[in-house]
Amino acid sequence: MMETFVQDPARKDWDTYFMDIAYMVSTRSRCPRRHVGALLVQGKKLLGTAYNGAPMGAADCSEAGCMIVEEYELMLVEGAEQVTKKQRCIRTIHAEQNLLLFTDRIDREGSTVYVTDQPCWTCANMLANSGVKEIVYHRAYPKDSEKVLSLMEQKGIAFRRLAAYEPPSQSGVSVIS
Ligand SMILES: [Zn+2]
Ligand SMILES: [Zn+2]
């Protein structure tokens, strides 16, 4: 019998539903450089939401400005290694880390995390130890991709990108990287 790949329409619907919510959550972020939203989903039940932001009660980026650090990144440009200077805001706690701070371990066991952006290395490392069994994201973050993918493979965590997904227009998506 010939196997054909059939997309599960129900799955696609749930993915869109939860990713739309993640984008709406991301609009709460006060960092002008990046708005990230993350959700904890257990058996189609939404158990937590989080976005990137300064600790509660501390000045956020809209009040105190971004806290910028400069980093040098080694990039491969047309086969040649090239050092590029990048700026990053470190005032905020990443959405995934806030999600872990505000959810319980027992709720995370076997759960799915929906996140607007592919997790950075630190977030991926923490998620890998959090009980989560699946991570679904939309926007790619190539910088850490290789080591994050290999970690997810080692841990047996499903790691899916919704490449065809389009964020809702109300989320006012804009990214400066
Ligand atoms: Zn900022
Ligand atoms: Zn992160």
UniProtKB/TrEMBL annotation:
Coiled coil: none annotated. Pfam families: dCMP_cyt_deam_1. GO terms for cellular component: cytoplasm. Keywords: Hydrolase, Metal-binding, Zinc. The active site is at E96 (proton donor). GO terms for molecular function: dCMP deaminase activity; zinc ion binding. Zn(2+) binds at H94, C120, C123. GO terms for biological process: pyrimidine nucleotide metabolic process. It comes from the Bacteria. Its cofactor is Zn(2+). Belongs to the cytidine and deoxycytidylate deaminase family. PANTHER family: DEOXYCYTIDYLATE DEAMINASE (PTHR11086:SF18), DEOXYCYTIDYLATE DEAMINASE-RELATED (PTHR11086). This is dCMP deaminase.
